[in-house]
Amino acid sequence: MIKNYIKIAWRNLVRNKGFAITNILGLTIGMICTIFIFLWVKDEVAFDKFHKNHDNIYQVMATRDFKPTIFTDPNMVLPLAKTLEGGNPQIVRTAVTSHQESHLVEYNNIKLKKDLYVASEQFFNIFTFKVLKGNPSEALKDPKSIIITESAAKAFFGNDEPMNKMVRIDNQQSYKIAAVFADPPGNSTFKFDFIQPFDYNSDYVKNRMKEWGGSSHNVFVQTTPNANMAAVDKYIDKIKHDHSKGDKISTYYTFPMNKWHLYSEWKDGKNVGGMIEYVRMFTVIAIIILLIACVNFMNLSTARSEKRAKEVGIRKTLGSDKKQLITQFFFESIILALIAFVLAVAFVYLLMPLFNTLVSKNLHLAIFEPFFLIGSLIIILFTGVVAGSYPALYLSSFNPVKVLKGTFAAGKSAVLPRRILVVGQFVMSILLISATIIVYQQIQHIKDRSIGYNPNNLVMVPSSSDIDKNYAAIKQDLLNTGLIGAVTRTSSPITQIWWKSGSPDYAGKAANGDIIFSGLNADVDFTKTMGIKILQGRDFNKTPGDTAVMLINKAAVEAMTLKNPVGMEMNYGRKFTVAGVIDNIVMASPYDPVEPLMIYYDPNSSSMIDIRLKNGVNPQAGIKALEPIFKKYNPQNLFEYQFVDQEFGKKFVTEELISRITNIFAGLAIFICCIGLAGLASFTIEKRFREIGVRKVMGASVRQLLMLISTEFLKLVVVAFVIAVPLTWYLMSNWLQKYTYHISISIWLFAAVGVLILLLTMIVVSLNTMKAALANPVKSLRSE
Amino acid sequence: MIKITNLEKFYRTEEVETIALNKLTMEVNTGEFVAIMGPSGCGKSTLLNILGMLDDPDEGSYVFNGIEVAHFNERKRADLRKHNIGFVFQSFNLIDELTVFENVELPLIYTGVTASERVKRVEEVLDKMQIMHRRNHYPQQLSGGQQQRVAIARAVVNKPKLILADEPTGNLDSSNGNDVMELLTDLNEQGTTIIMVTHSEHDARYSHRIIRLLDGQTVMENIMV
Ligand SMILES: Nc1ncnc2c1ncn2[C@@H]1O[C@H](COP(=O)(O)OP(=O)(O)O)[C@@H](O)[C@H]1O
Ligand SMILES: [Mg+2]
ipTM score of the complex? Predict the structure, then answer.
């Protein structure tokens, strides 16, 4: 029986090549999308899961409540990890690390900037990275040791043995390579080239170990399986508060590793998701695309049912019951799905490098993994069963008496459902296209937002102690090149906020409650270099330093509700006078409002030298002019630079990635719809071939014939449009709500999408109708 | 074998209600060869479909081999049908996607006959119908007469007790038509009950008895001598 099913399924496909190709093409494209999306989703969901203990690893976080604003802070004090260890049976291990730091590493004459974490002894017992050589846990106990990744080892030592080689860091101390491990996989939160132990004998670490304020480390705990996390949180919170009585605004708790990547966003002290939204969104898109492809199959199958009706009638007459027929039709759709899947996998293989570039990942298809095998089975069965369900039920329900008598117009009763399905397809496609455009417009809108400074032709050079020492000379040399308009230095890149705290004290400050301030140290010519507007007062102007004054931004004036800020006294550790108010500048997320900012002069804490190239200066020529100056005063270090506009652009990486992916998928969804439409149109024409001939004999023009056939489809598109517009509007308005600065959805957008879809339908249908409309009517009449 | 009593069948379309069968009563015995005649639209096909359990009556009783089947559900009817009844249609109704051999094999598949047994039985009937040499052809490659022989082969391959033929010669020329009638007569002589609808007095003469219908009712029965 099964052989018979397969046989007839196969012959049906071969006989009806157009039908088969249309369906297989649609399903293949749908499945390619689905496979890619699922690979991407799998990679996202598998983030950090390569650590054996990932279910029991937590990062210690703090909710800091500066009334009325609350923010979530991963920064912890250095001694916290050690103090937590051993004090609670549910905590198995703890570790503390620095932030990821970039350092100059030197071996022989090779100098490279590499990423590094300083980590405490238990780091490798909690996090299981793949060790290639040596014993990393032992290495972390020896402050003279350092641990290197495979690729970094290759960069420094080529094919030589890396173990026991000495590398020098930041032109200071040398460390011995004591272990080598495989590069962290692409889906690791920790990304690094080196891991270095804490040196508990150094004065710096000794002091920090006694310090229970000033948080700048990350603390991790590994718990027993099924630990009571509420109790663990309570314990951590208590330990921290026992040691720092002054800390009244913070609550400490643990954040599970399984959520680090997908739930990384916080707002008002609450987790608000993150990548998980995109993971969900793409999963839905994958399913929608597959459904659109399935609908093609349903529509074409039922449209073609007249041809199958006779077969159904005969089979029933010969004793087949409905169940057997349903099974047979499912067989056909599953075989089709199987063929499409095999093709899709082949294409995924071919397109993988392209997709990897697109999503900046390193994904690959592991065909023999259980994930893939189970996934394939699910995709094939899902597609086969969904696509086959309606045709199977529809076709198998034919009444043999009517069918064989020839009075039965098969396909008639499926017209309405088929129309509904076509409308559904187009609703989905219009929604995807409109949503894509809205996402794109929103990103453009944010990019066009006034950021308060001019990022173009602005260069940042990372600072060093040598640069700080020679800053005055460097600045003079730079200006002497004639290519540079202004120079300043800052304690963080202008594209990032590294420093947040409570507000300075000022007259009129509320007794309870605080305002979160961003902080920045800057030098003379700050506003001139950055191109920031001074709203009141003046910039820093004394050389060497304007140490007693502070600049604040407009947001700060508003938050503190100051009437005459210039000249006011601020107390932040020491006394400052407000010298000027500057415009709001977007340093953090371009999606969020600018927070209050204070800026004061501190010559010892610069991290960036900021250089404004004169208008019209070619950036590369500018860099060429900078290089010798920095090499001269900072010979020990590599010369590095960043263009601020590019750094600012990085804030859009995720959104642009998402926008690119949705673009492609929306395009493909429309394409699959069009394939289905083409199939339906050519089928309609086949059925009306004689009618077209008769009409032609009666004098109908080609244009009239095209209209006759197109109208049937255009009507459906119009209905789809009417449904899709409010739906899109509702969904996308909701999405836009999460942005403080957002566009309003324009009617023109929908009008444009509507015209586009109508045109597309016209073209697809016309191309198919043309042949019949142009054919010699005598032929079509004879063919009866 | 067949006993129907006061059988009624209505067709309702939006406005009109057609009475296709009107309190029809008749009996067919095992081994009989019965011809049903009557003007177009008098309900012949409707009757045959009900006898063949492709359709169910609205009123009345239909006893098949001593079993009341008038109210059987589709599944039960299909079951009874596939083991007992073979069909021959005016328009042959072969499946275009299957070869001659596969078309004839189909009823055996539905009754669960093993593959080797199927080959044997199909070859046997194809031989008997003299279309063995066409076994691997598709229906469109055959003439009308050949197609009807395949259809008859398919109808008898399961050795049904009853064959229902609805104008089996309607699409054939007289020579091919006579061949078909000879085949049916042979089958009947071997014990198969045959009920045949026909417009042709010539064909009707092959039968034992003619039932004439008018407006869904029996108007006359002729016993052939
Ligand atoms: N599916 C149907 N719907 C409505 N009326 C039908 C249908 N099938 C048959 N009829 C009507 O029932 C009557 C008997 O039809 P039928 O049994 O096909 O006649 P015959 O085979 O004797 O020509 C006719 O009047 C026909 O129009
Ligand atoms: Mg008839």
Answer: 0.74
